[in-house]
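This part of the workshop introduces the protein records we will be handling. A record pairs a protein's sequence with a compact description of its fold. Backbone structure tokens are a discrete shorthand for how the chain folds in space. The question running through the whole workshop is how a given chain folds. The record below serves as our worked example for the rest of this section.
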Amino acid sequence: MFHCIIEGFSIAIAFSIFLFAWNTRRMLNDNFLVLVGIAFLFVGILDFFHTLAYRGMNIFDISGGNVATQLWIGTRYIQSLSILATAFLINRKVRPALAFFTYTAVTVIFLLSVFQWQVFPVCYIEGSGLTPFKIVSEYCISFVVLVSMLVIWKKREKFEFRIAVLILASLGLMIFSEMAFTLYRDVYGILNVIGHILKLISFYLLYVAIVESGLKNPLSVLFRELKKGNESLQEQIRLRQESEAQYRASLDNSPISMHIYSKQGELVFVNKTDLARNGYASLEEFKSIPVEKKLTPDSVPMAAQWKQDSASGKPLPDSFFIDTITKSGEIRNLRALRSEIFWNGEIHDQIIYQDITEQKQAEEREKRLQDEVMTTNRLAAVGRMASGIAHEINNPLTWVIGYSELLLDRDLPEDVHNDIHAVYEGSMRMASIIQRMLAFARRNEPEYAVVQMNTLVEETLKLRSHDMKVNNIDVTLNCTPDLPEIFVDGSQIQQVFLNIILNAEIEMKKAHNGGHLTITTESMAGGLRVTFTDDGPGIPEDDMERLFEPFFTTREVGEGTGLGLSVSYGIVARHGGRIYARSTPGQGASFIVELPFRETSAEPPAETDNRPQVPAGTRILVVDDESLIRNYLSDVLKLEQCVVTTAESGMKALELIHRQKFDVVMLDVKMPGMTGIELDEKLKEEADDMAGRVIFVTGDLMSSETMSFVVNSTIPFVAKPFDAEQIIKTIHRVVSR
């Protein structure tokens, strides 16, 4: 009977704690009450099962005191761990539904482990008393409760003093209760009775702390933090009001430029320093000037957004950069720092301006120098790569051009003739691209000519018109009429434009399967400017500084080499111009090419169209390790009625020269074994009558060794890829000596 009464009171108190916490959960800002309430609901339920399973109740088909003891120890684990968890979650929100679900799951699993699965450790043995597991568990539970007390003691300022004392006293009695339960040997023993009494008192103290105190002083419990916050705010307001008068007096004489704005974005104060910096006499004069005349175009939208955000109550940045225009038209770069102050009894935004114009100019100069050094080094790497690529491509490209040219001279059906002509034109275009790449890598000066920029842009667009139409890309061309002509290498500048247009196409198609490209031409001081603006995804800020690095690409492997913009950078730089990008992620990108005017030079005399003839019967030795090159040269020269002999190596050629006479020897510079240069040296030693009859053929003008030899030698050479006309002209010069 005693056990039932004690446990009945405990269960009633546990349910009361839950009812109070649950019905006030929407008003409470304290998780301690909510979680303790939910936890004690399930503690009460488990204590109810413990009471029914107690020896002598005969509710369940069990004997002995083990099941009741198991239910007791499991409930105490849940109770102690719940108190520890709630101690850490004081003043933090929790989702009651999640807590309910968690406790329900734990409770069901625990009851199944005791009644159904019977896997919960044995806690009591008839005749022997408590098991080691039960005793150790009581110590563990006591330790958890002790830790909870320490946490609550550290956070005691979150509670009223009386409530904190009651909670700590409740937890202390809970520890003594657990200690008592470690010593009894019989479930009806005196220590068991003492433990239950201490438990009841512990529950009652918690009831007094949470339920009774909460009902008597709800405002104190529910709005304590709000009261503290209001008191703190009132103190801050008082202090600010006291300092406002002193602060206002010092603002006007401060050496720092300063503005004050209302929360509606209205300018209410400008100090003397800022007025003097901008060249204005008064606040009224300053405010009378439109913002478009006081800020650069890039800063105007930011100022408008600032005013709009301020009026709508949105958070404002604490610091930002802005570019202003003084009354005399000078642009100044400023760093602005925002803080809130009291002004005329209301909170205003104070902006302090730091002039960083000279610092920014110095940083830009330093960065430009660093970028130029880095770009130069990277482009040198591009040059080395270009050399290897060109050498590998020039040989097969030579015979593609050559044989297509030979086929064009034959009597073929018109459709076949047209197809071969397309192959020839494409091969020549590839050869031109390789030559430009080599010229770029060698850092050669551009081949300047007078160019009409609008025409060059229109011709470039024609090259991509079909692809842009297929890719759903519209183009708007804003060409300023009557632009001055400009002295540039049209082919190289067209290559720059093509790289930019192609990049824009790819990005717009990836972003929204189409897009709009706007191209604008205009005059600028000392030159012309061409701007390409797309509506693609824009360029991430981290990528902006690396756009013109060789091999830098954001695309997947195989989708881009990362060379287009770096090559374009080199071309524009050698023209004395500038190429740069502007972009806001998600709002497209603009690439700007600026080219200066240059003085024109006299145009070179036009070349004659008369093709020279090689005398029939001319004996020519062709030496090349590539069989296709040997065969092509042999076919071309036999059409000219020449007698052609071929050799695949330097040693074979030397043997042939010792056995017979040749009018011309065509030598490939780079060959396995004996190179063309080494063979030429041999000829000078062993066949001096061949002096002046050698023509070098090379596809590797980027090699420092080959280039040095060609430049310093008087021997004529033909660079791969070449066509029949180049060969005939060079042979004609040699045999005509």
Q: What stands out?
A: The first strand starts at residue 124 and ends at 125. Residues 113 and 374 are 71 Å apart (CA to CA). The chain has 24 helices and 19 strands. The longest helix spans residues 357-408.
